[in-house]
Design goal:
The complex is a heterodimer of chains A (385) and B (96).
Chain A lengths: L21 H9 L7 E7 L2 E6 L5 H11 L12 E5 L8 E4 L3 H9 L6 E5 L7 H7 L4 H10 L2 H4 L4 E4 L9 H8 L2 E4 L7 H6 L6 H4 L5 H6 L1 H22 L2 E2 L2 E2 L1 H29 L8 H18 L11 H20 L10 H31 L7
Helix pairs in contact in A: 5-7, 11-12, 12-13, 12-14, 13-14, 14-15
Chain B lengths: L10 E2 L9 H5 L5 E4 L2 E4 L10 H4 L6 E2 L7 H10 L16
Chain lengths: 385, 96
């Protein structure tokens, strides 16, 4: 027997149907990265549902590596609907997840040896917290999915466990009124789920706090690098080409010296802020990320000067040194300011406040730096040292 | 780690609180505490305005202007002529 929840169910669209064929959608959306992350089916009162593996395989890890590097994130999805883990019964807990495969993988990996249900919501491939912020991981989708899957016929109890970070999208009382199911907020991290379930669904304060530890921050570095290539490459390319200009016209010698070193400084600025920004975040002075970023840019130029690098190759003239003293902080300030969205503790009000002074300052510094740098190409300034 | 604290928009109307404790449960930064069966703001400055508490407060005792503290989202919203929009769903935006 098959059902809207079964693996052979026809694809009728995400809204009307509880789920779609995992294998088919997986192969369609993931292409050659397709991983068979289910093993068999579980019979239920509403038909057969796929059983999710709790051990990640090589392809799952490869997929994690890809999305952690910033590639294919928007297509990294599992089909929404009901899944079994182990051999769940009508008394087994129901856990909510997003259809971002990384979210789903975190969850199933934490459930080895357990018998539970997973209800995957349609969040358009977005993780739980971000989707909750948008409301796609939220009340309306839970109500729709619970009804579409006939959850009340699958389990006898009336509890569904949501990740705590799903709460910004969920009004628990509205879900209860619409479906009769009580939303219980589980821990922030899926890894704490076994302890949470064993403690009769009580989370301790440690489970309830979002962290942003060194490891968490460094995990974001590859994505940040991938995202910033679109700024880095054009800026470096423009300085490289313009570096060939001088009062004598264009020369490849100028491009190879001033142009190349300027492009290298742009790259150095980005590497500094993209790696050291997240790594040193708690210790950088200031609370505004734009300030922390500017400090890194100044420190970079300062370190190069202290290292004795200024010379015909690098800064060339006092004008260019002056230019980099504002250009590098402009780059690093803007870039770390954009890291607010990746952090776990910045408020919208705080971001708006810091942008009010930071964005004009960044634009001014960038413009001033560019003027100084261009002037330095044509005016033979006194060489540094 | 702490962010800019004075601008946080969170407020709690203690008179409306029914003591359910959901705000304590959903807050990822331990902003709330229960004292004598009522919620109190224990660490208002740690609020990141995610809105989970207000959304789950049945009696409506909590106000916060919920949003995502994402500068790239604010810029994207300005460019698109809309409000702050976290562009997480698109490939080419930061991972907020």
């Amino acid at each position: 027997m098959t059902s809207p929840c079964g693996p052979d169910a026809p694809e009728r669209g995400a809204v009307s149907c509880c789920g779609t064929s995992p294998i088919r959608l997986e192969s369609r959306t993931l292409g050659r990265l397709a991983a068979p992350w289910t093993d068999g089916v579980q019979s239920t009162a509403v038909g057969e549902v796929p059983r999710a593996r709790t051990r990640l395989r090589f392809r799952d890890r490869l997929g994690t590596l890809m999305v952690r590097s910033g590639f294919g994130r928007s297509r990294y999805r599992v089909p929404p609907g009901l899944y079994a883990v182990g051999s769940p019964t009508g008394d087994s807990p129901v856990l909510l997840s997003a259809d971002y495969k990384l979210s789903f993988d975190h969850l199933r990996r934490a459930l080895g040896g357990r018998n539970v249900w997973i209800l995957v919501l349609d969040t358009h491939g977005i993780n739980v917290w971000c989707a909750a912020g948008k409301g796609t991981f939220g009340t309306a989708e839970i109500v729709r999915r619970v009804r579409a899957c006939g959850l009340s016929r699958v389990v006898q109890h009336h509890k569904i466990v949501s990740p705590q970070l799903g709460a910004p999208g969920i009004a628990a009382h509205e879900v209860r009124q619409a479906t009769g199911f009580h939303v219980v907020y589980g821990p922030v991290r899926a890894a704490d789920l076994p302890a949470f379930l064993d403690a009769r669904m009580v989370a301790n304060p440690e489970m309830r706090q979002v962290r942003f530890r060194l490891r968490d921050r460094l995990l974001l570095v590859p994505v940040e690098v991938t995202q910033n290539v679109r700024y880095l490459v054009p800026v470096a390319a423009v300085l490289l080409l313009l570096g060939g200009l001088s009062s004598h016209g264009f020369s490849f010698a100028g491009l190879a010296t001033t142009g190349a070193t300027s492009a290298a400084l742009v790259v150095a600025s980005y590497i500094t802020v993209l790696v050291l920004g997240p790594a040193l975040l708690p210790w950088l002075p200031g609370r505004a990320f734009s300030v922390k970023g500017a400090v890194l840019g100044l420190a970079l130029v300062g370190a190069l000067v202290a290292w004795g690098l200024p010379g015909p190759g690098l800064f060339g003239s006092w004008l260019h040194l002056a230019a980099w003293l504002v250009l590098a902080p402009a780059i690093t300030s803007f870039t770390l300011m954009n890291f607010t969205g990746s952090s776990t503790f910045t408020s919208l009000s705080g971001v708006l406040r810091e942008m009010r002074f930071a964005v004009p300052a960044q634009i001014s510094a960038g413009a001033l730096g560019l003027v100084l740098w261009l002037t330095g190409l044509f005016v033979q300034g006194r060489p540094v040292r | 780690m702490r962010y800019l604290e004075s601008v946080v928009t969170l407020s709690l109307d203690a008179a409306r609180c029914n003591g359910c404790g959901l705000c304590v449960a959903v807050c990822p930064h331990a902003v709330f505490q229960m004292e004598q069966k009522r919620a109190v703001l224990a660490d208002r400055g740690a609020c990141m305005e995610c809105g989970a508490c207000a959304k789950n407060c049945e009696p409506g005792a909590i106000f916060v202007r919920a949003g995502v503290g994402c500068a790239a989202g604010v810029l994207a919203g300005l460019a698109a002529g809309t409000g702050p929009t976290c562009g997480c769903s698109q490939e080419a935006t930061p991972s907020c």
